[in-house]
Amino acid sequence: MEDINAIVNETQTTLHEEVQKVNEDVSTQNTFIAYEFAGIFAVLGTLVFLWHMTSHLRALNEPFVQRKILAILWMCPIYSVTSWLGLVLVDAEPYLGMIKDFYEAYCIYTFLSFLIAVLGRGDRNAVVDMLANHADHMKPPIRLFGLLDGGKKYDDDPRAKAEAVLHQCQLFAMQFVLIRPLTSVALVIANALYTGSRDYTSPQFYIILVINFSIFVAFSGLVKFYHLVREDLAWCNPFPKFLCIKGVVFMTFWQRMVITIVAETAMENSFENDKETREWIQQAQSFLVCIEMLFFAIAHCFIFPVEEWEEGYRPRQNKSKLGDNMALRDFMKDVKFIMKSRKARKRAMNRMSRERVQTSDSFMDELESANQKRNAENDTGLTPTVEQQEESTSLPEHNDALEERLRKLSASISPSASEGDEEEDIDWDRLERYIEQADKEISEKEYAEKYYSEKEITTNEII
User: How far apart are CA 36 and CA 23, in angstroms?
Assistant: First the structure.
């Protein structure tokens, strides 16, 4: 009996070891697949960047401006390469993340410098003069610990006010470039020394607050400057360019927060300890960034085109939207119509039919006028004049047009509109009188033609 138990225990142990080995092999294989997949996207994104960068270098028509563009374009390869290395070398990811944080802050200030360069082409005084033209709706700079003076002293000097506002916007963007490296280093040190919960008692909580406040101040200065000069920059579409910078910041910071929340709530039981949780968060963030940077690199090719800086460039007019090219707007109108209730559709059809009947009032007046004119001619019995003869030649055409309009009017009335509708209905008696009058007008066509023909013969005989 003991031998049987020993054999069973040995078999269970062996089976458990084999299952663990298979799980490790599958996990390793899945990890290598993730490495390859992320690496392919990183390489493709880098190749797109190289092609775009060389296009600018071959056509460096505005070096002062295009240097800023090249600095922004470097964001995609730096993010994709460091993210892939962080995916493979998990222990080195915090230090690689510091590189991404540094360049993120640098790109935000570089974008502000890009806008200033577009306006002044290297001449700061030209930018100040342009801002002075908007001094009427420009708020004065705020007081910031004596660094900037605000108040009424700028009311009589628009140029001084513009100079102070430009200086403030640059200061707001530059502080993020200086603070972000410090907070990144502090966050790495805090993660190494403090591994407890991330609540208000942890140092990471306050470091993240400082990062958020610094980002808010930087984007406040950037948005303020954009609103002041958006009309002057409309030709180069600065808003999509701004969204590219903002999108990368979102992908690196807020995306990580969402992944952290998912790992600590929905997948809490999937990890054995906090270390595995943090490693999974880092790897998931790095994997997604590698994929996303390819799409950002492709977007940069369209948002920062080389043609913008060629001599004689003119922005495209009447650009069609994606929805117009794909008829999405027409589709949405059809969806709204189909989703209406049956009663609403009947009401709409009745309204359309009633409008068509109302538009026939002028045509009925023409019929009555024509009848009165012919009756007057019949009563007088005079020889038709040249004008009357010309009118007689156009009478068949007039009656043919009458038949055509009557046919279209009858066809335009939907059968569903004749069904009972309590709220809105068509005056069918009036429509019937109109049709009878039109039939009477058509039936008189032969008589009118015969009358004018006899008159014409009599006139010829007399001649």
Answer: 20
